[in-house]
Amino acid sequence: MLTDAMNLFLIGYRCTGKTSVGQVLAQQLGWHFVDTDRMVVAAAGVSIDRMVTNHGWLFFRKQERQALVSVSAGDRQVVATGGGMILDERNVSTMKRSGRIVWLTASETTILTRMRGDSATSESRPSLTRQGLTAEIATVLAERRPLYEKAADHVVATDRRTVTVICERILAALEMRNLAACQPPTA
User: Fold this and answer.
1) How far is CA 126 from CA 4, 69, 114, 140, 156, in A?
2) pLDDT, tens digit, 9 for 90 and up, residues 65-98
3) Where are the domains of the chain?
4) Mean per-residue pLDDT of the chain
5) How many CB atoms lie within 10 A of CB 116?
6) At the topology level of CATH, where does 7-178 sit?
């Protein structure tokens, strides 16, 4: 169970619902919502795609690490992390020290459908492998699945589920249903 002095980190591949679920979950808990990708973009003043094109993935991963360290100093936050946050073991350790980690999963088909319907995918999400989208999803998921699995305190599938149902499953996994029901709405 989470305490008031902890954070909840959502990890998972692109388009598994981290931001959508995180926003609703934070509201239900009366906690703050933070998206580390948005933090990085705001600090850099350019999209992730432009950042990676201009400076490379290593530069982006350093910015991502700084954002995580910054947010982890706070508490009572639901944090949507970038899909590659788990690539650095230090990030996983930082999240574990600061709270609990929930891995949001989805099938390759669901991810592909969501990515094709998401304008942010083409505008701000750079290719990870330079393969076609279907092949990239399969390749990257195969590489990252063991890392997500190792990092996660809890796993919640998002396929064919509403944000409300996903939030209920997260709260149940964390034994927080009563806490969410008692929280006043955030301003």
Assistant:
1) 36, 23, 16, 13, 26
2) 999 999 999 999 999 999 999 999 999 999 999 9
3) 7-178
4) 89
5) 11
6) Rossmann fold (3.40.50)
Tell me the backbone φ, ψ of residue 109, rounded to 5 degrees.
-65, -45
Token reading at 128: 């990870």
Mean pLDDT for the stretch of residues 51-56: 93
pLDDT band at 185 (very low <50, low <70, confident <90, very high): very low
Pairwise CA distance, residues 143 & 19, whole Å: 22
| 3-state per-residue secondary structure call for 2-31 | CCCCCEEEEECCCCCCHHHHHHHHHHHHCC
